[in-house]
Design brief:
Organism: Streptomyces griseoloalbus
Protein name: Uridine kinase
Strand order of the largest sheet: 2-7-1-8-9-10-11
Number of strands: 11
Shape: globular
Region (Disordered): 182-206
Strand content: 15-25%
Distance between the termini: 8 Å
InterPro entries: P-loop_NTPase (IPR027417)
Largest sheet: 7 strands, mixed
Radius of gyration: 16 Å
Length: 206
């Protein structure tokens, strides 16, 4: 993981002074956990979770809000303020600050969408098949979310059919029993390097 973090730090800024790193993948593929661990190794880099940007009414139609609330201010080197969505009350909450840190991690389904890629320094794809990902997500959320998941699966299929992310990923992330394997993605990498394999034992700071 430290090798991956070092690779990210060597990248040039992509959104004003910020290196914007996207972690995309199917719902249930482990994006949040991986993004949190990556952010920790990057010294506590801010993580923007797209669950805070999407809503029941706009599962994927949040591009304009993300651009205006987050990417445009960051592009000017300013602290962004976005209103996180509460999935229980179905309301947007008070604005939350997001500073223009050297690296900002954006994680969520659709983080590598067409409209965002010009602002990204690196696109990572959690390489878990969609059916396996969805099964993990359903098991995690329980029976009470079954109806939501039925609607989500349809929406996700439609989104990726028209705006796929994986073909444009710089790196693929595969979770194993003892950690993650990071491999070159379909879009290639910004530098020549062998695949990176990371364990999750405490001695490796995982």
């Amino acid at each position: 993981m430290h090798d991956l973090a070092a690779r990210i730090r060597r990248l040039g800024p992509s959104c004003g002074p910020v290196r914007l790193v996207a972690v995309d993948g199917h719902a249930g593929s482990g994006k949040s956990t991986f993004a949190g661990r990556l952010a920790g190794v990057l010294g506590g880099a801010p993580v923007l979770r797209l669950d805070d940007v999407a809503s029941h009414e706009e599962l994927f139609a949040w591009t304009g809000r993300l651009l205006s609330q987050v990417l445009e201010p960051l592009g000017r080197g300013e602290t962004a303020h976005y209103a996180p969505y509460d999935w229980r009350t179905r309301r947007f909450g008070p604005p939350r600050p997001l500073p223009p840190a050297p690296v900002v991690v954006v994680e969520g389904v659709g983080a590598g969408r067409r409209a965002l890629r010009p602002h990204l320094a690196l696109l990572l794809w959690m390489d878990l098949p969609r059916e396996e990902s969805w099964a993990r997500g359903r098991a995690r959320d329980g029976e009470e979310q079954r109806e939501f998941w039925d609607g989500w699966v349809r929406a996700e299929r439609e989104h990726f059919a028209g705006d796929p992310s994986r073909p444009f990923a710089d790196l693929l992330v595969r979770q194993g029993r003892k950690g993650y394997e990071v491999l070159p993605g379909p879009a290639g990498t910004s530098e020549s390097a062998p695949p990176l394999t990371h364990g999750d034992e405490s001695s490796a700071m995982w």
